[in-house]
Amino acid sequence: MKASYVIGNWKLNPATLGDVQALASALTAGTGRCQVGVAPSFVHLSAAKAALSAGIWLGAQDIAHKSTQTGAFTGDVSGAQLADAGAQFVIVGHSERRAYHGESDAVLAQKITHAFASGLSVVFCIGETKDEYQAGKTLDVLAAQLQVVADFASQITADTDGALPKLLIAYEPVWAIGTGLTPTFAEVEAVHRFISETLAAMQVFSPILYGGSVNDTNAETFVKSPLIDGVLVGGASLKADSFARIAAAF
Ligand code: PEP
Questions:
Q1: How far is CA 228 from CA 107, 145, 181, 196, 211, in A?
Q2: Whose CA is nearest to atom 7 of ligand 1?
Q3: Per-residue pLDDT at 1
Q4: Exactly one of 96, 128, 172, 189 is catalytic; which is it?
């Protein structure tokens, strides 16, 4: 049975520690083939870890670009600090980091280097903007973004049963994030096939998740494809019951 992954990106939510504890303690681990993970903000990692059920993976939403575990990098958080707080993975390359913090491919490569050196897995996000989608440039954009992971091929081995993969790719069309819009099932499948072929040519082994306005109604659609190994969920991961229904679908 092929594993699947349902990962919640809490972004800058929830507002209070009490809300974090309530959300984390209400989550249930996946069943069967589905593995579940969540990524709260830095300041909530330890509290989330304490409240989460065993078996739910904990992740951070960012990591410092410099591979130093301590030092003069105001505002940055190192991989060692993340691991010490209980994180097992980190999201790198989310479109909101690319857009609001100008994170370049070079910076993203540094972040992946740092994460791997710290023993953290990486959820690497890629996706085209609305203009790029409308101009028919999606595959060109994704091919360029995927070049970042090519250099890590020798470090990324095939999944072992039940373990968190070292790398997970999340295809997230920027125009689908938080908008309620999604590509068609056929479009997502075609893109996932392209990503899969591109990764295979690089000798990189990674599950491929879809992200962008996934909810407990449309999750059923994405489950149907053997090319979609799971989902990265933003808004709908903030409601424990919706998130549980998405995980149950996988
Ligand atoms: C995301 O930001 O990773 C995301 C997929 O958000 P949403 O599910 O809210 O579109």
A1: 27, 19, 18, 10, 10
A2: 234
A3: 67
A4: 172
- Ligand 1 centroid to Cα of residue 52, in Å, is 21
Choose which CATH entry (3.40.720.10, 3.20.20.70, 1.10.287.110, 3.90.1150.10) describes domain 8-70+77-244.
3.20.20.70
Which residue do the tokens 């994704």 mark?
142
Coil/strand/helix, residue 27:
coil
Dihedral of CA 36/33/192/217: which sign?
Answer: negative
Burial bucket for residue 247 (CB in 10 Å: 0-12, 13-18, 19+): buried
Residue 189's pLDDT is 97
What's the pTM? Answer: 0.96
Q: Is 10 annotated as a binding residue?
A: yes
Count of CB atoms situated within 10 Å of the CB of 23: 24
Tell me the H-state helices in 27-155: 45-51, 79-84, 95-101, 105-117, 130-134, 138-150
Q: Match 């920027």 to its residue by tokens.
A: 174
Q: What is the pLDDT of residue 229?
A: 96
Beta carbons of 69 and 78 less than 8 angstroms apart = yes
Q: Is the CB of 214 under 6 A from ligand 1?
A: yes
Residue type for position 60: A
